[in-house]
Write a structure and sequence with these properties.
Distance between the termini: 46 Å
Number of helices: 3
Pfam family, one: RimP_N
Structural class: alpha+beta
Family: Belongs to the RimP family.
Order of helices and strands: HEEHEHEEEEE
Largest sheet: 5 strands, antiparallel
Subcellular location: Cytoplasm
Helix content: 10-25%
Protein name: Ribosome maturation factor RimP
Radius of gyration: 20 Å
InterPro entries: Ribosome_maturation_RimP, RimP_C, RimP_N, RimP_N_sf
Shape: elongated
Number of strands: 8
Strand content: 35-45%
Strand order of the largest sheet: 7-6-5-4-8
Length: about 150
């Protein structure tokens, strides 16, 4: 019952701020509620506060005791939703599949797949040595084991 009420309150809060979206919602047996959110333009502390207030102010502690934590998806967290991939187009990702690990630029993302572009050194077709070639890959989300945004300084 608590899960349904929290989901409804989150839906209402995301309707008010359509640039924010839910990554995960966990409620354990002790009524500890953990909400992880993200945003199309990133997340601020104020965004977390607003979502927290939207939930907390509409639940009655007299009826059911709970604790609430609202956090943003961290930079070290893997991408999990197509919307997260879309907001990171143009950034470098490290993508693991069952067969390989690719570090590439995310060039496109839709509801079914992502497109990656990168450069690789390969042996020349004739003669000795290596040359640089441009590579592209289109991966369905089902083929991705893990994908993380690479942070560069």
């Amino acid at each position: 019952m608590l899960q349904e009420r929290v989901e409804k309150l989150l839906d209402e809060a995301f309707e008010e701020n359509k640039s924010l979206f839910l990554i995960s919602l966990e409620i354990n047996s002790n009524n500890q509620i953990r909400v992880v959110i993200d945003g199309d333009q990133g997340i601020s502390v104020n965004d977390c506060i607003e979502i927290s207030r939207s939930v907390e102010h509409n639940l009655d502690r007299e009826e059911e005791d709970f604790s609430l934590e609202v956090t943003s998806s961290g930079v070290s967290e893997p991408l999990s939703l197509p919307r997260q991939y879309k907001k990171n187009i143009g950034r470098t990702l490290q993508v693991k599949t069952a067969e390989e690990k690719i570090e590439a630029t995310l060039t496109d993302a839709n509801e079914e797949e992502i497109s990656l572009n990168w450069k690789a050194r390969e042996p020349k077709p004739v003669g000795k040595g290596k040359h640089t070639v441009e590579k592209e890959a289109v991966l369905p989300y089902s083929a991705i084991v893990e994908a993380k945004v690479m942070i560069t300084f």
